[in-house]
Protein backbone atom coordinates (compact mmCIF):
# COMPACT_ATOMS: atom_id res chain seq x y z
CA UNK A 1 0.00 0.00 0.00
CA UNK A 2 1.30 3.45 -0.92
CA UNK A 3 2.13 5.90 1.82
CA UNK A 4 -0.18 8.89 2.14
CA UNK A 5 1.02 11.69 -0.11
CA UNK A 6 2.10 14.99 1.40
CA UNK A 7 -0.57 17.35 0.10
CA UNK A 8 1.36 20.44 1.18
CA UNK A 9 3.82 19.79 -1.66
CA UNK A 10 1.04 20.35 -4.20
CA UNK A 11 -1.18 22.82 -2.39
CA UNK A 12 -3.90 22.83 0.21
CA UNK A 13 -5.74 19.64 1.03
CA UNK A 14 -9.10 19.19 -0.64
CA UNK A 15 -12.18 17.20 0.33
CA UNK A 16 -10.85 14.07 -1.39
CA UNK A 17 -7.68 14.25 0.72
CA UNK A 18 -9.87 14.28 3.83
CA UNK A 19 -12.02 11.39 2.56
CA UNK A 20 -8.99 9.27 1.63
CA UNK A 21 -7.28 9.97 4.96
CA UNK A 22 -10.42 8.87 6.81
CA UNK A 23 -10.67 5.65 4.76
CA UNK A 24 -6.99 4.92 5.35
CA UNK A 25 -7.52 5.39 9.08
CA UNK A 26 -10.70 3.29 9.19
CA UNK A 27 -9.69 0.57 6.70
CA UNK A 28 -5.89 0.32 6.76
CA UNK A 29 -6.08 -3.14 5.16
CA UNK A 30 -7.42 -1.61 1.90
CA UNK A 31 -5.41 0.21 -0.73
CA UNK A 32 -7.71 3.19 -1.30
CA UNK A 33 -5.31 5.00 -3.63
CA UNK A 34 -7.70 4.81 -6.64
CA UNK A 35 -9.93 7.22 -4.71
CA UNK A 36 -7.21 9.85 -5.06
CA UNK A 37 -7.94 10.02 -8.79
CA UNK A 38 -11.44 8.69 -9.35
CA UNK A 39 -13.13 10.59 -6.53
CA UNK A 40 -11.68 13.78 -7.97
CA UNK A 41 -12.89 12.81 -11.43
CA UNK A 42 -16.39 12.19 -10.03
CA UNK A 43 -16.40 15.50 -8.15
CA UNK A 44 -15.10 17.36 -11.21
CA UNK A 45 -17.86 15.74 -13.29
CA UNK A 46 -20.46 17.19 -10.91
CA UNK A 47 -18.83 20.64 -11.13
CA UNK A 48 -18.68 20.34 -14.91
CA UNK A 49 -22.36 19.37 -15.07
CA UNK A 50 -23.24 22.56 -13.15
CA UNK A 51 -20.97 24.65 -15.36
CA UNK A 52 -22.58 23.21 -18.49
CA UNK A 53 -26.12 23.69 -17.18
CA UNK A 54 -25.29 27.34 -16.47
CA UNK A 55 -23.77 27.87 -19.93
CA UNK A 56 -26.77 26.25 -21.62
CA UNK A 57 -29.44 27.90 -19.50
CA UNK A 58 -28.17 31.31 -20.65
CA UNK A 59 -29.42 30.17 -24.08
CA UNK A 60 -32.60 28.56 -22.76
CA UNK A 61 -31.27 25.09 -23.48
CA UNK A 62 -31.30 21.93 -21.42
CA UNK A 63 -28.22 19.72 -21.53
CA UNK A 64 -30.04 17.09 -23.58
CA UNK A 65 -31.08 19.74 -26.11
CA UNK A 66 -27.47 20.86 -26.50
CA UNK A 67 -26.43 17.21 -26.96
CA UNK A 68 -28.84 16.69 -29.86
CA UNK A 69 -28.19 20.07 -31.48
CA UNK A 70 -24.43 19.70 -31.17
CA UNK A 71 -24.51 16.20 -32.71
CA UNK A 72 -26.30 17.69 -35.71
CA UNK A 73 -23.94 20.68 -35.86
CA UNK A 74 -20.86 18.43 -35.81
CA UNK A 75 -22.27 16.32 -38.65
CA UNK A 76 -21.29 19.00 -41.16
CA UNK A 77 -23.44 20.43 -43.92
CA UNK A 78 -26.32 19.90 -44.31
CA UNK A 79 -26.26 19.28 -40.52
CA UNK A 80 -28.59 16.34 -40.49
CA UNK A 81 -28.60 12.80 -39.16
CA UNK A 82 -31.04 9.93 -38.96
CA UNK A 83 -32.78 9.40 -35.63
CA UNK A 84 -30.74 6.18 -35.29
CA UNK A 85 -27.48 8.08 -35.68
CA UNK A 86 -28.64 10.54 -33.02
CA UNK A 87 -29.45 7.63 -30.70
CA UNK A 88 -25.91 6.28 -31.08
CA UNK A 89 -24.28 9.66 -30.53
CA UNK A 90 -26.37 10.65 -27.50
CA UNK A 91 -26.70 7.23 -25.86
CA UNK A 92 -30.48 7.32 -25.39
CA UNK A 93 -33.27 5.01 -26.53
CA UNK A 94 -35.11 5.50 -29.80
CA UNK A 95 -38.29 6.40 -27.92
CA UNK A 96 -36.44 9.05 -25.95
CA UNK A 97 -34.93 10.42 -29.14
CA UNK A 98 -38.33 10.64 -30.82
CA UNK A 99 -39.57 12.71 -27.89
CA UNK A 100 -36.49 14.93 -27.98
CA UNK A 101 -36.76 15.55 -31.71
CA UNK A 102 -40.47 16.35 -31.29
CA UNK A 103 -39.68 18.91 -28.61
CA UNK A 104 -36.82 20.51 -30.55
CA UNK A 105 -38.95 20.64 -33.71
CA UNK A 106 -41.67 22.35 -31.70
CA UNK A 107 -39.15 25.01 -30.73
CA UNK A 108 -38.02 25.46 -34.34
CA UNK A 109 -34.51 24.15 -33.65
CA UNK A 110 -34.72 21.11 -35.93
CA UNK A 111 -36.91 19.86 -38.73
CA UNK A 112 -37.73 16.42 -40.02
CA UNK A 113 -37.09 15.76 -43.69
CA UNK A 114 -37.65 12.68 -45.83
CA UNK A 115 -34.59 10.48 -46.15
CA UNK A 116 -33.59 10.63 -49.84
CA UNK A 117 -32.07 7.14 -49.64
CA UNK A 118 -34.92 5.46 -47.72
CA UNK A 119 -38.47 6.55 -48.48
CA UNK A 120 -39.65 5.14 -45.15
CA UNK A 121 -36.98 6.99 -43.16
CA UNK A 122 -36.52 10.54 -41.98
CA UNK A 123 -33.56 12.80 -41.40
CA UNK A 124 -33.37 15.35 -38.63
CA UNK A 125 -31.89 18.64 -39.80
CA UNK A 126 -30.64 21.55 -37.76
CA UNK A 127 -32.44 24.81 -38.59
CA UNK A 128 -30.87 28.26 -38.74
CA UNK A 129 -32.34 28.98 -35.30
CA UNK A 130 -30.87 25.74 -33.95
CA UNK A 131 -27.48 26.55 -35.45
CA UNK A 132 -27.45 30.02 -33.91
CA UNK A 133 -28.33 28.79 -30.43
CA UNK A 134 -25.96 25.80 -30.42
CA UNK A 135 -23.08 27.94 -31.69
CA UNK A 136 -23.67 30.59 -29.01
CA UNK A 137 -24.04 27.96 -26.27
CA UNK A 138 -20.85 26.21 -27.42
CA UNK A 139 -18.91 29.49 -27.32
CA UNK A 140 -20.05 30.12 -23.74
CA UNK A 141 -19.30 26.53 -22.75
CA UNK A 142 -15.79 26.64 -24.20
CA UNK A 143 -15.10 29.94 -22.40
CA UNK A 144 -16.26 28.44 -19.09
CA UNK A 145 -14.23 25.28 -19.63
CA UNK A 146 -11.12 27.34 -20.42
CA UNK A 147 -11.62 29.11 -17.10
CA UNK A 148 -12.09 25.78 -15.32
CA UNK A 149 -8.84 24.41 -16.73
CA UNK A 150 -7.01 27.71 -16.33
CA UNK A 151 -5.21 26.40 -13.25
CA UNK A 152 -3.21 24.14 -15.58
CA UNK A 153 -0.68 25.13 -18.22
CA UNK A 154 -1.53 24.05 -21.79
CA UNK A 155 1.08 21.27 -21.60
CA UNK A 156 -0.49 20.00 -18.37
CA UNK A 157 -3.93 20.07 -19.98
CA UNK A 158 -2.65 18.00 -22.92
CA UNK A 159 -0.97 15.53 -20.55
CA UNK A 160 -4.15 15.20 -18.49
CA UNK A 161 -6.21 14.66 -21.66
CA UNK A 162 -3.82 11.91 -22.74
CA UNK A 163 -4.00 10.15 -19.38
CA UNK A 164 -7.79 10.40 -19.17
CA UNK A 165 -8.08 9.08 -22.75
CA UNK A 166 -6.07 6.00 -21.73
CA UNK A 167 -8.29 5.37 -18.71
CA UNK A 168 -11.53 5.92 -20.67
CA UNK A 169 -10.52 3.99 -23.82
CA UNK A 170 -11.66 0.54 -22.65
CA UNK A 171 -15.14 1.94 -21.96
CA UNK A 172 -15.37 3.78 -25.28
CA UNK A 173 -14.72 0.79 -27.55
CA UNK A 174 -17.50 0.22 -30.07
CA UNK A 175 -19.02 -3.27 -30.03
Would you write up a description of this structure?
- This protein has helices at 15-26, 34-57, 63-74, 83-90, 94-106, 128-149, 154-172; strands at 80-81, 110-115, 118-126.
- It is built from 7 helices and 3 strands; from the N terminus they run H-H-H-E-H-H-E-E-H-H.
- Strands 1-3-2 form a 3-stranded antiparallel beta sheet.
- 63% of the residues lie in helices and 10% in strands.
- The model is unreliable at 1-9 (pLDDT under 50).
- The chain starts with 14 loop residues before the first helix and ends with a helix.
- It is elongated.
- Among the domains are: 15-57, no CATH class; 63-133, Winged helix-like DNA-binding domain superfamily/Winged helix DNA-binding domain (Arc Repressor Mutant, subunit A, Orthogonal Bundle), CATH 1.10.10.
- Helix 2 (34-57) crosses helix 6 (128-149) and helix 3 (63-74) crosses helix 6 (128-149).
- It is mostly helical.
Short description:
This protein has helices spanning 15-26, 34-57, 63-74, 83-90, 94-106, 128-149, 154-172; strands spanning 80-81, 110-115, 118-126. Helices cover 63% and strands 10% of the residues.
> Class of the domain at 63-133, according to the CATH hierarchy?
Mainly Alpha
- Biggest sheet strand line-up: 1-3-2
Write down the overall geometry.
elongated
Radius of gyration: 21 Å
Give the overall average pLDDT.
Answer: 90
- Range of helix content: 55-70%
- What composes the largest sheet? 3 strands, antiparallel
Structural class: mainly alpha
* Assigned CATH superfamily of the domain at 63-133: Winged helix-like DNA-binding domain superfamily/Winged helix DNA-binding domain
What is the count of β-strands? 3
Sketch the topology as an H/E string, one letter per element: HHHEHHEEHH
> Which regions have little confidence, pLDDT < 50, spanning 5+ residues?
1-9
